[in-house]
Amino acid sequence: MTTALSDVRPVGERLRAWRQRRRLSQLELASEADVSTRHLSFVETGRSTPSREMVLRLAEHLDVPLRDRNLLLVSAGYAPVFEETPIEEPRMDSVRAALRQVLDGHEPYPAVVVDRFWNLVDANGAAAFFMEGAAPELLEPPLNVLRLSMHPDGLARRILNLAEWRAHMIDRVRRHVALTADASLAQLYRELRSYPGDVGEAIAPPPGHEVFVPLRMRLDGRELSFFTTIATFGTPVDITVAELAIESFYPADAGTSEYLRERAGW
């Protein structure tokens, strides 16, 4: 969790921090949320206590993550409204089934489900080769796919364009930290940057790959190339569901597709 529910700062202070993080002026947010600038100013300075509905409305327009909306509600004196259901609970059966359908449907290409820290939640059989040859400690739960891919004892030693791939992935984590202000995610960002190698600013992809940054790696003496897509649930009201993401790997060339199909016995 970004901050414990018991760590309560004034709701106005929290709302102001989120507004500034989104680089919105009071006038811009007030206009978007259909409230007066004066009232928003009073809320941020603590001169006025917002209603529960007002907190949720402002949080919606600020695109605040669900777990942090609970913190805003608690800070304003209201009960949290968003639940966080463990993925293994029976009420999550339909969610797990949907994830499994997507994963299985993506075979023979790799796909993984991760949480907000990029910890592995589930994966299809084709993703197994990402873990081959990695140090055992990197495979212990919770298995973090970013740590696995960028650690010197993980997938990094098989990635052919490591500097390029790491630069873009670390920049991706940096942007998530900026969006969420999550202290644990910031710690992961610092860890990833500490690994040996070039982790400068993201660089332009090489000629021929202008539309995406490929993951190029060597496996079984073959050079493979992938691009990825990310899918999330469209209308989540549960924190766990809101923080799940499916990352699907697609072959970026015919040779990679042929190899994966041969590997799967297709």
Automatic annotation (TrEMBL):
<dbReference type="InterPro" id="IPR001387">
    <property type="entry name" value="Cro/C1-type_HTH"/>
</dbReference>
<dbReference type="GO" id="GO:0003677">
    <property type="term" value="F:DNA binding"/>
</dbReference>
<dbReference type="Pfam" id="PF17765">
    <property type="entry name" value="MLTR_LBD"/>
</dbReference>
<dbReference type="InterPro" id="IPR010982">
    <property type="entry name" value="Lambda_DNA-bd_dom_sf"/>
</dbReference>
<dbReference type="Pfam" id="PF13560">
    <property type="entry name" value="HTH_31"/>
</dbReference>
<feature type="domain" description="HTH cro/C1-type">
    <location>
        <begin position="15"/>
        <end position="69"/>
    </location>
</feature>
<dbReference type="InterPro" id="IPR041413">
    <property type="entry name" value="MLTR_LBD"/>
</dbReference>
<protein>
    <submittedName>
        <fullName>Helix-turn-helix transcriptional regulator</fullName>
    </submittedName>
</protein>
